[in-house]
């Protein structure tokens, strides 16, 4: 049994977690998730995109509570936020705990999600309010 990222191409299991995005060498646009076809801003090809390590930290721009969804995990209700990453793009992610509002500073944490058919534990990135 091993511990694996649910999306290993997007996340490194470090403490603190690292998000993997990319940056265009032409126009310096930062993107997450990485654009599979090239830069959306200047049209540079995929070969002109460099992997970029992004801090799993930022500021909440918007927040919503999900009461129903079609998957068993995560359990409802849960909070989804639009987060402006420090030095990076805007992403959507689950924020655990109370006290989440616009302007709240949050940090990434690794959370055990499910066990796959081979018995591997899959972990995912969530955020929590910084104290």
What can you see in these coordinates?
With 131 residues, the protein is an all-beta fold. The chain has a domain at 56-131: OB fold (Dihydrolipoamide Acetyltransferase, E2P), CATH 2.40.50. The protein is 0% helix and 50% strand. The protein has no helices and 10 strands. It has strands at 3-5, 11-12, 18-24, 30-31, 49-55, 57-66, 78-85, 90-96, 105-115, 121-129. It has a 5-stranded mixed beta barrel. Strands 2, 3, 4 and 5 form a 4-stranded antiparallel beta sheet that branches. β9 and β10 (121-129) form a beta hairpin. The radius of gyration is 16 Å and the shape is globular. The N and C termini lie far apart (34 Å). The mean pLDDT is 92.
Brief sketch in words of this structure:
This protein has 131 residues and is mainly beta.
The CATH architecture classification of the domain at 56-131 is Beta Barrel
Which runs of at least 5 residues are low in confidence (pLDDT < 50)? Answer: none
Assigned CATH class of the domain at 56-131:
Mainly Beta
CATH fold node name of the domain at 56-131: OB fold (Dihydrolipoamide Acetyltransferase, E2P)
Class by helix and strand content? mainly beta
DSSP strand tally: 10
- Helix content percent band: under 10%
**SSE run:** EEEEEEEEEE
Lateral arrangement of strands in the main beta sheet: 6-7-8-10-9
Report the biggest beta sheet as strand number plus sense, adding barrel if it closes.
5 strands, mixed, barrel
The DSSP helix count reads: 0
Rg, Å, rounded: 16 Å
What sort of overall outline do the alpha carbons produce when their principal axes are compared? Answer: globular
């Amino acid at each position: 049994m091993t511990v694996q990222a649910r999306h290993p191409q997007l996340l490194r299991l470090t403490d603190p977690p690292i998000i993997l995005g990319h940056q265009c060498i032409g126009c310096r646009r930062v993107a997450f998730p990485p654009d599979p076809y090239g830069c959306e801003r200047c049209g540079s090809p995929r070969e002109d995109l460099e992997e970029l390590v992004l801090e799993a930290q930022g500021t909440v721009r918007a927040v919503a509570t999900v009461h129903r969804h079609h998957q068993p995990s995560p359990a409802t209700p849960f909070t989804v936020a639009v987060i402006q990453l420090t030095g990076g793009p805007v992403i959507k992610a689950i924020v655990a705990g109370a006290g989440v509002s616009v302007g709240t500073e949050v940090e990434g944490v690794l959370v055990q999600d499910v066990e796959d058919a081979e018995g591997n534990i899959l972990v995912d990135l969530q955020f929590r309010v910084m104290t």
